[in-house]
Amino acid sequence: MDQADLPHARRAVVLVLGGSGFIGRHAVTALLVRGAQVIIGSRQPGRIDRKLPEGALTCLRRQARLEELQTPDDWAAALEGVDAVVNCVGILRQRGRETYQRVHHHAPAALAEACRQRQLRLIHVSALGLNHPARSRFLRSKVDGEAALRASGADWRIVRPSLLDGDGGYGALWIRRVAHWPIQLLPADAVGQIAALDVGELGEALAHLALRIETTTPDDRDREFDLGGPDQRTLSDYIAAIRRLHHDKPARCLRVPSLLARLGSHVCDLLHWTPFSFGHWELLRHDNCPQRNRLPELLGRAPRAIGAAPAGSGMAATPSIHGDHEVAVMPAPMGE
Ligand SMILES: NC(=O)c1ccc[n+]([C@@H]2O[C@H](COP(=O)([O-])OP(=O)(O)OC[C@H]3O[C@@H](n4cnc5c(N)ncnc54)[C@H](OP(=O)(O)O)[C@@H]3O)[C@@H](O)[C@H]2O)c1
User: Fold this and answer.
1) Which of 89, 159, 242, 265 qualifies as a cystine partner to 278, CB 3.0-4.6 A?
2) Which residues span the domain enclosing 316?
């Protein structure tokens, strides 16, 4: 179904929180490709031009600082005229009032209640690997955020991607960088498997979820989407696969003993040195793969393999087709 089939409909308006970030930019692009009207939420909407894809420069922007949006009423201005929200906000480090709990838990909880009141769909990006007991405050705040959505009564979806690959991501850049090093240091207990996926495909999946018209209310279990690429491997095997795209000779991998790696992660947290953190150290010790990978279902095709395609092949450029389920338009009466 497309816009032409719905003469009395208007374009869906989707607010993408964190729309200038690694994931958010791809969600914005995929929504625009599908004909949605996108509003980008940012802490500093006037200073994100260089981070946005070209097609998104003319999108409306709204200031949204999650640490200040702690009650449903606080969200009123940000949600004005909006049909759906995609929340791609996340912090790796706490700074002043920007705490994990405020950004990952309390603000999404308030947003979910505000969306419930207005009957807006809310797509919330979380992370895989949260089902293991975690001590990291970063991970616990993500768990709390998910729980708040489930309890909200809103039209929520939770999306949990595995590790992402793509241009412009801080973590993805580091992994690509490390893959070039002839000697690599990795935590000895980074034994968990990951199912890396393409960030562009995650953007497509998020756009599909935001725009999909549901004929029935899905069960709670069906509102949660664990997403991954086709291959499951440990971090070292993943880095080795990326390396093989550019080098014939494998790197020498030195294993950092668990205690030392954990200590290193705390030092990184103290110095605010990303990409490593205590949360990462905890995540790497367990599998970070979807038990039920729903990415093919959302894309309508098999996901792209990461580290297997010839170098320079780029990411999938063709948006998936979900003709009879997804429209970037809203029936006229909705929200008006
Ligand atoms: N990257 C991965 O491999 C990966 C994998 C799984 C899950 N995730 C999760 O996905 C989420 C986003 O990841 P990402 O890689 O896209 O991160 P990112 O590139 O750092 O983007 C995060 C975005 O959040 C916004 N933001 C940060 N603090 C905010 C605040 N206090 N209020 C409002 N907006 C704020 C920033 O927008 P402004 O600077 O414009 O305000 C930024 O664009 C995180 O929760 C992360 O844990 C990431």
Assistant:
1) 265
2) 3-331
Residues with CB under 6 A from ligand 1: 18, 20-24, 42-44, 48, 64-67, 88-91, 98, 103, 125, 127, 161, 163-164, 169, 171
Tell which one of 23, 63, 103 to mutate to probe ligand 1, the residue whose CB is within 8 A of the most ligand atoms: 23
Question: What's the pLDDT score for residue 138?
Answer: 93
Token pair in block for residue 226 = 């664990």
Q: What is the number of structural domains in the chain?
A: 1
Alpha helices in the chain (DSSP H): 22-33, 76-79, 100, 107-118, 137-150, 170-180, 199-211, 235-244, 258-271, 278-284, 295-299
For residue 237, give the CATH number of its domain: 3.40.50.720
Is 336 within a domain?
no
Q: Give φ, ψ of 199 to 5 degrees.
A: -65, -30
Pocket-testing residue among 44, 89, 99, 173, ligand 1, by greatest number of atoms within 8 A of Cβ = 89
Cα(162)–Cα(290) distance, integer angstroms: 7
114 falls within a domain: yes
Instruction: Collect the ranges in the chain with pLDDT lower than 70.
Output: 1-8, 308-336
- In angstroms, the CA 14 to CA 18 distance is 12
Q: What number does the ligand 1 atom closest to the CA of 45 have? A: 40
Q: Provide the residue count of the chain.
A: 336
pLDDT tens digit sequence for 272-319 = 888 899 999 999 999 999 999 999 999 999 999 998 655 444 433 333
Q: Mind listing the pLDDT tens digit for each residue in 26-74?
A: 999 999 999 999 999 999 999 999 999 999 999 999 999 999 999 999 9
- Residue among 15, 29, 74, 88 whose CB has most ligand 1 atoms within 8 A, to mutate: 88
Quote the pTM value. 0.91
Q: How far is the CA of 283 from the centre of ligand 1 (A)?
A: 17
Looking at residue 28, its pLDDT comes to 98
